[in-house]
Write a structure and sequence with these properties.
Radius of gyration: 42 Å
Largest sheet: 9 strands, antiparallel
Number of strands: 71
Mean pLDDT: 88
Distance between the termini: 43 Å
Oligomer: single chain
Low-confidence stretches: 1-19
Shape: elongated
Number of domains: 7
Strand content: 35-45%
Structural class: mainly beta
Number of helices: 5
Length: 935
């Protein structure tokens, strides 16, 4: 049977608590949260909303060195293939603030070991931001590894989060692509200009765009001028050129190889220009400009570009000199001195060592003046006898490898490996002999094994069941290698195998208690690979733990009993022991329970029965409770008394226990109000008119502790354990007598103003506690008892006022209440009438320190006083009535933090205890309601 008082609100809350997805909030806030480390492109222009995106995740197999190699070569495809995305991509924008370059996005993913194929939990978080529609088509990107690791969600408990993941200079462990640039923009939130996060250029396939170069030429009007434009490409791709804009003062013939002819119109002078761009087959370059200076007569100046030739060795082959003139006319060379001969532009060494001086000239023509000569020199050195082998230690690549040689010409060089000129492939040691003429050099080439990652697949099983088959996978095969080629079938004896598969195992046994058990490797052998083992986890799901359930009466449809169950951790023959307690209104103390559960591996449930025969006034009362647990933490119980259904519920739950290091975001102080009770089915006895209330807290383990004052003035305490469904279950007997109790559910919703905190809004349908009290002839109030009542619940977080710190803003009492020191607070007293009632205050004000001053009526004739405990949110007070006799009336209650979704609600509520008058028929105290509200 489902409990009656909780409808859609509870369903939404429970769904929010059982969704298994860790939530991470990615942002580029600075540490003080008063500015952003702006995300910009390579030109330091902040990324506008809709023009970029990002992901967080992890690299599955690539090491830092491999990532850096792919970044350096622009191999975006390789990076993308290895990247495992956490959740989904997000846009680079922050709609709440609007400015470009700001980011705050929440992403979620199930990181339970049993459900996470990407093994996020415990691994470093990578952030990949990009300009464009996707990572592979982006033109620029920013790739870093953060100093923060992904969390691991507990298997059967609420997920972790929200967890902040800041992307800023202080949280970056490794920067692969991009840069942290100087501060260039102030968002105006108090931080001033902050270091920006600047992307670097990339391409759709790791391509780098070419860079076109500006050029200046001098021409004569009416005389054709031949030249060419230039561009550089980081990837050394072949380039084609295209004209962008024509000149104005002349004709241009522009060719795809970059050559052009420009003829200025006759009579023109001054300056002209045209623009062009280059393309590498994938991307266009920038647009560059050719500036043209036009002369109307005379001849033009020209210059020569001539780089010094490289150093040569005696005996090197002839080579050509290279130089160009700005006029485009051919350049001539001459040897000024040194051991070399020249024929045209071809230099032939004479066989001696020394310095060769070379001059480049251009004599000019009818259009161009002679160019100033340019002299260069180069050294001719003797043939080195220092014969060296390099690259003698390498790592297996799946293809042939070779050593390098220095000190001798490559012509005529012969290298053998273990006597063969065939290049080696497999890992191992090889004797190297290099021969160049009469020179010989020996060495040893070592090819180390390459890393092969062996990753265990995570597994789960039910307690008491055999272990599942343990499986794993490989990543990192090179060349044409695969699992079959690296691990061939073993040879027939007595030959020994050259490769063996690693052995996988776990410490978990068939009867191991619930928990997480490592899956590990040992052994294994491969010719060309060394193993990098990534262990896994076997999760043994168990019924072990503590459970709670509030049972509902079939007659009243209200909570009437509570059962607490603790299941042992061991199992034998599919049997698990349990102990616990049962509280009912028919017993003043908890009844002990004990029994055995039978585990059904097919349905993954555990069922059992508890019975007890109890003598009450020499009459035997028979208790029988049927218990059913499911592996997800659900708890169903049916309680019969003397063969009749007494109470039942199917929405109990395992008690929530935070995982190690898990942060309980709802931890903190709270205040709770029980609205004036309403009869559940009509009332015979007088009804207390005041509001019950409580101060309390939720600790770091999510345990809630309450100090309660009921509407009749009775005080009690309660310690409530959190369920994995997010709810709390209350059952107390404040009067220590039969048929007296306060019971119900506290199901918290997400607070709209304080992320992570919970609350119960005022008058939320169905959120109420059942309250009943049996008659007590000596009670100070309501001696005839209190019939079954419903008390509506309001629960709010409370924050103790505190001064601002470097990292936290001020918490001010009046701000928490949504008022100022000039706000008029209305005071309402209900539950009695008479002349004195008109003397009670109706309007007060509150100072910043919590001191309250009566404003109306003037003079405070009732001597009304209140003391606010800002540390807990509670208040106490008193006032004086003087009809028939002088009576001091005490009151107490709690304050409420303002709520943005309902700011006009009351800010405090409680009850006062009104002593009887001499003329009253009995000396019983009556309660009334006191409210503080802002009209």
């Amino acid at each position: 049977m489902k409990r009656f008082p909780h409808f859609a609100a509870c369903a939404a809350l429970c769904a929010a608590h059982v969704t298994q997805a860790a939530t991470l909030t990615v942002s580029n806030y600075n540490a003080a949260a008063n500015g952003f480390h702006a995300i910009s492109d390579n030109a330091s222009t902040r990324i506008a909303p809709g023009t970029g995106g990002g992901v967080i995740g992890r690299m599955a197999t690539l090491t830092d060195e491999q990532v850096n190699t792919h970044v350096a070569s622009g191999n975006i495809a390789a990076l993308n293939a290895d990247f495992r995305v956490f959740g989904s991509p997000f846009a680079l924008d922050l709609t709440s603030t609007g400015p470009d370059g700001a980011l705050e996005k929440a992403v979620s993913f199930d990181t339970r070991v049993s459900s996470d194929p990407n093994n996020f939990g415990g691994n470093a978080i990578y952030a990949w931001l990009y300009k464009g529609a996707s990572r592979t088509s982006a033109t620029e990107y920013f790739l870093v590894k953060l100093s923060q690791n992904f969390p691991t969600d507990p298997e059967d408990l609420p997920p972790l989060g929200p967890i902040e993941v800041p992307v800023r200079p202080g949280t970056i462990a490794t920067l692969y692509a991009g840069a942290a640039g100087p501060g260039t923009f102030d968002y105006g939130f108090g931080s001033g200009p902050l270091t920006i996060l600047r992307m670097q250029a990339t391409g759709s396939s790791g391509n780098n765009a070419p860079v076109a170069e500006n050029k200046t030429i001098n021409v004569l009007a009416g005389v054709p001028f031949n030249s060419s434009v230039t561009a550089t490409d980081p990837d050394l791709d072949s380039l084609t050129f295209s004209k962008v804009a024509d000149p104005i003062k002349g004709d241009l013939t522009f060719n795809s190889n970059g050559t052009f002819t420009y003829t200025a119109d006759g009579g023109e002078s001054g300056q002209d220009s045209f623009t062009f761009k280059a393309n590498d087959g994938t991307d266009d370059s920038n647009t560059a400009t050719v500036t043209i200076n036009i002369q109307t007569g005379g001849t033009l100046a020209q210059t020569i570009s001539f780089d010094a030739p490289a150093q040569r060795q005696v005996g090197d082959a002839p080579f050509d000199l290279m130089a160009t003139a700005s006029s485009g006319l051919p350049v001539s060379f001459q040897i000024l001195s040194g051991p070399a001969n020249l024929a045209g532009s071809t230099v032939t060494l004479t066989g001696a060592a020394g310095v060769v001086q070379v001059r480049a000239t251009q004599a000019g023509d009818s259009t161009f003046d002679p160019a100033p000569p340019v002299d260069r020199h180069f050294h001719v050195v003797p043939v080195s006898t220092k014969f060296n082998l390099i690259n003698l230690v390498q790592t297996y690549t799946g293809g042939p490898l070779s050593v390098g040689v220095t000190g001798v010409p490559l012509t005529g060089l012969v290298i053998t490996y273990n006597g063969s000129q065939n290049l080696p492939v497999n890992a191992g040691s090889y004797n190297v002999l290099a021969t160049s003429g009469t020179l010989k050099k020996t060495g040893k080439l070592t090819i180390n094994k390459a890393p092969l990652t062996v990753t265990a697949d995570n597994q789960r099983k039910l307690i008491g069941q055999p272990n599942p088959a343990l499986t794993f996978n490989y990543s990192g095969f090179l060349g044409a290698d695969d699992e079959n080629s690296v691990f061939p079938p073993p040879p027939a004896p007595p030959a020994k195998p050259t490769a063996t598969v690693p052995v996988i195992s776990t410490t978990a046994k068939d009867l191991s208690p619930g928990g997480r058990y490592p899956i590990t490797f040992k052994g294994g052998l491969a010719v060309n690979y060394r193993f990098v083992f990534v262990p896994g986890t076997l999760v043994v799901d168990s019924f072990e733990g503590r459970y709670e359930n509030l049972l509902v009466s079939p007659d009243t449809m209200r909570a009437i009993a509570k059962v607490e169950l603790t299941v042992a951790k061991t199992i034998k023959d599919n049997k698990m022991a349990f102990t616990g307690k049962l509280w009912t209104p028919t017993d003043t103390a908890a009844l002990p329970i004990k029994g055995t559960l039978t585990v059904d591996p097919l349905t993954e449930t555990a069922t059992g029965t508890w019975t007890l025969n109890k003598l009450v006034n020499k009459v035997a009362i028979a208790y029988e409770m049927t218990i059913n647990l499911d592996i997800g933490g659900g708890f169903e119980a049916i309680l019969d008394v003397d063969g009749d259904l007494f109470a039942e519920a199917d929405d109990g739950a395992r008690v929530f226990v935070p995982a190690k290091g898990q942060i309980v975001t709802n931890a903190g102080l709270l205040t709770l109000i029980l609205a004036p009770p309403l009869p559940a089915f009509g009332a015979v006895n007088p009804i207390p008119l005041g509001s019950g209330h409580a101060t309390g807290s939720v600790d770091a383990k999510a345990v809630m502790k309450l100090t309660l004052t009921l509407a009749d003035g009775i005080k009690t305490t309660a310690t409530l354990m959190p369920g994995v469904d997010g709810g709390y279950r209350l059952f107390v007997n404040p009067y220590k007598r039969l048929n007296s109790y306060l019971a119900g559910w506290l199901d918290l919703l997400e607070h709209p103003d304080l992320p992570g905190r919970g609350h119960i809004p005022t008058m939320l349908m169905g959120d109420s506690l059942a309250w009943a009290k049996a008659a007590g002839p000596k009670d100070k109030s309501y001696r005839g008892g209190i019939d079954l009542m419903d008390c509506g619940i309001t629960l709010d977080p409370w924050r103790k006022p505190a001064k601002a710190t470097k990292t936290l803003p001020e918490i001010a009492l009046l701000n928490e209440l949504g008022i100022t020191d000039s706000t008029v607070i209305s005071i309402g007293h209900s539950g009695f009438a008479g002349v004195d009632a008109g003397l009670l205050p109706t309007e007060v004000t509150m100072a910043a320190n919590g001191k309250v001053t009566v404003q109306t009526p003037a003079g405070n004739p009732a001597v009304w006083q209140i003391t606010i405990n800002t540390a807990t949110g509670g208040f106490t007070g008193k006032f004086t009535l003087k009809n028939e006799k002088t009576r001091t009336v005490n009151f107490s209650g709690v304050l409420r933090r303002k709520l943005s979704t309902n700011p006009a609600d009351f800010i405090g509520r409680g009850n006062f205890q009104l002593p009887a008058l001499p003329s009253d028929p009995t000396p019983e105290i009556q309660s009334g309601d006191i409210q503080l509200f802002v009209p």
